[in-house]
């Protein structure tokens, strides 16, 4: 489908639908009229096959206790194989009602109070909370930032693991907010350090399908790195929710290849959650895995074009702005510090540009001056946001 026709068919507005992104602007930012570029969900309707499958299920009118059908497992397993070359066994798979819920449960199950848990910052802020709220010791290693190209500081990672007796590493792959898809070399080095120091790994791969340039930066699951050498110490958490815009349907996965870790998980998960499956989440997820690939490819092309638009607009009108390389996720990480004092970022972005964004300090206390913008939206929103930033910067300089 032509991109314009796809946008016409799928892009929509969401005000007055109880959308966190649009209908909580007053509560969260004190201004209901901001242009919302925060929250990692999309302004695009799900693939039409998904809407149809949900409509059929809803028409039945019963939402009683349900089971996960074989067809769901097969759809998920086939998707992982076809899209990422990841071979899953059905008995490795468990279900959750959201990846963040699973992070909290796994921190509890895999570590003891006081144990060191490592994260690479800046990172999706619930990673901090899952460690701190469970009274584990938060250990951070800051990513290196070379003008928007982020890399792992392996010496520091090793140092942090040794100094803090780290037991668990929670990785974000692809990495929200800096947009990196870790290369196989980087992953191998990182996971080898975890192996050397007996550190377990939770790999949050919820953004796995959001590959912006699949040819040059393909996503590789931690379970397939180095031909699966590390899979015994890795638990993957992922979901169809980011890929297909299904977050509120509360259906996510844990993949646990190691039978001992699986037993430990099964024996303990009941302490934290007695949730049954989300039947609508599974109907939607199954249908999306079976028939949503073409829709996803169109979304990725839009995100790529939106990113390209930002890059060229900023290069032309505000060349000292730095956008991080966008390899994975639909979230772009913008460094405003060349123009705006870090402490004035909120006043600039929120009060002058009238934008609702995720602020840098939410992802790391050191990252005031950065903002995260969501590009899984109608290109007209991206154009509007870019124009506001450029115009307000030029007014500021006068
Ligand atoms: C890395 C990462 N993990 C988890 C989530 C949220 O997952 P869930 O809605 O399934 O809790 C997000 C949402 O942005 C995310 O970026």
UniProtKB/TrEMBL annotation:
Q: Which InterPro entries match?
A: Aminotransferase_I/II_large (IPR004839), C-S_lyase_PatB-like (IPR027619), Class-II_PLP-Dep_Aminotrans (IPR051798), PyrdxlP-dep_Trfase (IPR015424), PyrdxlP-dep_Trfase_major (IPR015421), PyrdxlP-dep_Trfase_small (IPR015422)
Q: Name one GO molecular function term.
A: cysteine-S-conjugate beta-lyase activity
Coiled coil stretches, renumbered: none
Q: What cofactors does the UniProt entry give for this protein?
A: pyridoxal 5'-phosphate
Domain of life according to the entry: Bacteria
In the Enzyme Commission scheme, what number(s) does this protein have? 4.4.1.13
State the UniProt keywords alphabetically. Answer: Aminotransferase, Lyase, Pyridoxal phosphate, Transferase
Annotated ranges, domain Aminotransferase class I/classII large? 44-389
Which NCBIfam families does the record cross-reference, listed alphabetically? C_S_lyase_PatB (TIGR04350)
Family designation: Belongs to the class-II pyridoxal-phosphate-dependent aminotransferase family. MalY/PatB cystathionine beta-lyase subfamily.
Instruction: Tell me what this protein is called.
Output: cysteine-S-conjugate beta-lyase
What lineage is this protein's organism placed in? Answer: Bacteria, Bacillati, Bacillota, Bacilli, Lactobacillales
